[in-house]
């Protein structure tokens, strides 16, 4: 009996082990997911693995040419390459559209629609102002006193504003084509911003320093040199390298500040030192000019506040993907500031030719 029992027991144990191994091989995931702790951990690992795969694919998309979509379809934030993402904008991204589809998306709703249209309208405004400037300034604004310099500085300003708004619209419209296109459009946009900042102050320096030719030339050459440096800087080969992103961003911001200071400082130099030397009082027109400059700078600064803080989408992510995002507000204020400055420059020009330079 003892021998039989010894023989039978191992067989039963072996059968149990075999059946257990079969069950384990067939339903390991079922048994594990039934555990209260292991199940959620495995689910989380699976999610993280999928996210990692998507991130790896997006990084490849940032470098390698991606297939271009010819059908209009929008993507969510997590399915969008890093170079196209915007903080707190959660949906309605265009990803790897063909150029034809990019252009067609101009007439469809997505998270760049109004970023494109706000500056397209700004470009149209300054195209019309450019034509108006050439026609009206050519006859001395009704006085018959035509000066080529008066026309030239205003034409330069209108062209630089037109270029800025067109570059911005193209960046927002075609940037979704590919990483290469995005970077190219982005560089053109940054370059055009430097041009607009510098070009905005050229008419002011030209008109206010009309009687101080040496200072006029010195300050205009200085601001033009800085503006050209700022316009060319984005195209420096290393500026697109991620290793130097922080350094180049700091240099770019410093250039923007220097361009602004190169215009603001001469204007105050004129007000404090040069204007009294000509026996001119601090008249109404000078006050109006200063108010115009402060209004323009205020609009820029308010727009910059929205651009930096990402308000309102920061407060309610996903609610401002299409309408009223901070970038749209920033665009509107930039166009408003440029139009306000044009109006004040025209007023300054008319006052100069009617009172001082006949």
UniProtKB/TrEMBL annotation:
Q: Which UniProt keywords apply?
A: Membrane, Metal-binding, Transmembrane, Transmembrane helix, Zinc
InterPro entries noted in UniProt: AdipoR/HlyIII-related
Q: What is the lineage of its organism?
A: Eukaryota, Discoba, Heterolobosea, Tetramitia, Eutetramitia
- Transmembrane ranges, per UniProt, are 116-139, 151-174, 186-207, 213-233, 254-275, 287-308, 329-349
Q: What is this protein called?
A: Uncharacterized protein
User: Where's it found, cell-wise?
Assistant: Membrane
In its UniProt entry, the species of origin is given as: Acrasis kona
One MF term in the entry's GO annotations: metal ion binding
The principal location of this protein is membrane
Q: Which family does this protein fall into?
A: Belongs to the ADIPOR family.
The way it spans or sits in the membrane comes to: Multi-pass membrane protein
Q: Which domain of life is it from?
A: Eukaryota
Xref: Pfam families = HlyIII
Q: Which residues of the sequence carry a binding annotation for Zn(2+)?
A: 172, 327, 331
UniProt GO cellular component terms: membrane
């Amino acid at each position: 009996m003892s021998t039989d029992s010894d023989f039978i027991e191992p067989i039963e144990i072996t059968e149990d082990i075999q059946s257990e191994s079969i069950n384990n091989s067939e339903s390991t995931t079922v048994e594990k997911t039934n555990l209260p702790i292991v199940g959620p951990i495995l689910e989380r690992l699976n999610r993280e693995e999928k996210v990692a795969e998507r991130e790896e694919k997006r990084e490849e998309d940032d470098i390698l040419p991606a297939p271009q979509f010819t059908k209009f379809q929008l993507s969510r934030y997590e399915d969008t390459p890093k170079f196209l993402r915007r903080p707190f904008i959660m949906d309605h991204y265009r990803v790897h559209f063909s150029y034809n589809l990019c252009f067609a998306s101009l007439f469809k709703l997505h998270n760049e629609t109004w970023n494109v249209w706000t500056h397209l309208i700004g470009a149209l405004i300054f195209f019309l102002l450019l034509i108006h400037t050439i026609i009206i300034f050519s006859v001395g604004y009704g006085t018959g006193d035509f000066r080529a310099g008066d026309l030239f500085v205003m034409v330069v300003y209108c062209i630089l504003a037109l270029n800025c708004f067109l570059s911005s619209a193209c960046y927002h419209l075609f940037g979704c084509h590919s990483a290469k296109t995005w970077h190219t459009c982005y560089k053109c946009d940054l370059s055009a911003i430097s041009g607009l900042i510098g070009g905005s102050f050229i008419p002011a320096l030209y008109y206010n320093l009309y009687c101080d030719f040496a200072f006029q030339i010195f300050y205009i050459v200085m601001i033009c040199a800085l503006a050209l440096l700022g316009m060319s800087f984005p195209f420096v080969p290393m500026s697109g390298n991620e290793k130097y992103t922080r350094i180049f961003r700091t240099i770019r911001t410093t250039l923007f500040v220097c361009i602004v200071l190169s215009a603001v400082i001469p204007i105050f130099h004129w007000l404090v030192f040069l204007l009294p030397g000509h026996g001119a009082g601090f008249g109404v027109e000078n006050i109006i000019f200063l108010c115009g400059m402060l209004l323009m700078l205020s609009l820029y600064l308010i727009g910059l506040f929205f651009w930096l803080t990402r308000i309102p989408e920061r407060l309610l992510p996903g609610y401002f993907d299409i309408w009223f995002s901070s970038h749209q507000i920033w665009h509107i204020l930039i166009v408003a500031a440029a139009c306000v400055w044009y109006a004040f420059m025209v007023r300054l020009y008319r006052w100069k030719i009617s009172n001082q330079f006949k």
